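Forwarding the complex inputs:
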Amino acid sequence: MNREDPKIVKAVLIGITTVFLTVMLVLPLIYVIYTALRPGLETFIAAVTDKYALHSIYLTLIVTLMAVAVNIVFGLYTAWALTKFSFRGKKFLSTLIDLPLTVSPIIAGLIFVLTFGRQSFLYPYLNEWGIKIIFAVPGIVLATVFVTFPFISREIIPVLNAQGKDEEEAAALMGAGAFQIFRQITFPHIKWAFMYGVVLCSARAMGEFGAVSVLSGHLRGKTNTMPLYIEILYQGYDFTGAFAVSSILVVMAILILIARNLLEHRSKNKFLK
Amino acid sequence: MTDIKNSKLTDSAAAGTEIEQKLQASDSAGQPYVELRHINKSFGDFKASDDVSFTVEKGSLVGLLGPSGSGKTTILRILAGLETADSGEIYINGKLVNNIPANKRGIGFVFQSYALFRYMTVFDNIAFGLRTKKAPKDEIKEKVNSLIDLVGLTGLNKRYPNQLSGGQRQRVAFARALATEPSLLLLDEPFAAIDAKVRQELRSWLKDLIQRVGITSIFVTHDQSEAIEVADQIIITNHGHVERSGSPIEIYSNPESSFVTKFIGQPTIIDNPGIFNGFSKIRESRSTAVLRPEFISVTKLNEPFRYNITSETGIVEKSFFRGGDFELKVRVHDQLLTVNRPITQERIVPGEEVRIFIRSLYLLDGDKAVTVLNDSLTAAESTYVI
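Prediction (whole assembly, two chains):
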């Protein structure tokens, strides 16, 4: 056996990965920020403090917050149900959770338009109650929830599966109620996976374009989230504006990435202890 | 009392016996502390419990023994309320507990994995049940500290489970199960996860401690030496049903059923036992019998021996050193018998021809096993058979 071989293989693999990531990720990211700042800081500030730009940032944050909140509840419940009980159709449900990962977001948007739009049998009732979903904020939230719902439960399920039911059963035998068991036994165990799921879910929610695009109606200052607003600016040849708002979204994504790495680091330390 | 007697007269006979049984159950003197009646439980097609019935006396230490998959753990979990029986009745202290939730049955449970709360200290683990019951703080502290002392973990209050050895974890699990003063303690394979040397030590520790606390306890094990050593009463399960129940000595010396005979002790199964000298009364040549090493004595050909007429000669094929004695594999009538020879006697080596004397054997007859003595021995001479 030639002992040099592994070293060469190692160098080649690392080299290819680095080049690939540089071309695919680092260069474009730097270019976005560079283009946004090239016409000068004043133009940049003007572009991002534009009334519609500010509203799109605000809407993105609100939608992300709501979608994450809904998915926290949904994700915890689903993960709990799928790991602690065995029942008919469990496999089917488990597969169903992954649907948003495989279905194109644009189809997700269309599904909601069909379900809640004018042609739906639900429409007269919604109209009567004064609930507007399509081309309104609730629709955007719905679409975002749909697209991001696998993230939290998918992170938690493996951890819960690995833990088994013994600790919970032991606590239940000692008289602990369901909420006490969750708070004192289950949650400390899934805390890091849960937070990691929240981070992934937020990142995805902020950047969602396809499904939201179908449902929003692109009303400036009303239903435009950041990705939609960027698209409009870009289509209107306002490259400076598009890149300026993009750079804000990129910075938000990078912040979340840093949060993710910090969490990963902490959870590793926790397990090693 | 008279009311019930009257109603018994008016009711159907079946209902009458039921009331009678319930009356007996509520009578506190001399009744079993735990009673299972006709418990059935299936998981899909698998019958985990098949008409399981047994009783446990107050204050006794009972071992549920059986091969893996024989339904021991299911019985324990049904008793604890962690599983629901498909049919049958469970009585604890004379009370029907089928519909009483697990946490109200007054049961302490030690899991095979110990199930210690990994994000809590030793102190918090043991205090968990007391805190749930909202006991006063000083009382919890006093109680938990005395339990920590009792199980010999003084000074380890602030440790987390992953900072403890297997034996220490088991002690914590035990203390935690005892904290809420249960009336019944259930232990699922309590020694399975511990290495052999510590296991031996823990066995006698646990037996001693359970006797000191005086709590009725049931433990599950697949290890017969563990059951024999620790339990006052052994219940043997096989394929979901109870094969045999009795004291360790009773079960060991009189296994009764064919399954128990082949399961307990160190059995060697032989065919056609009638060909061995001293057992010619066994005529059926297709029968099988079970021998244990202690039923057989082995002597060198030059050593004097009393029952020469009904002994056999055989060739030693293998010899294993077991510490206090040698385990010899001796071929007699083309069958391999296992015998023990104390280290203090003259060595027998492989290839040597030896004299073999079979005192007795268990003749298997369908589900039953009967003891058959060597013709040279009368029942009075046999020290073994009761």
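DSSP finds ten helices and 19 strands in chain B.
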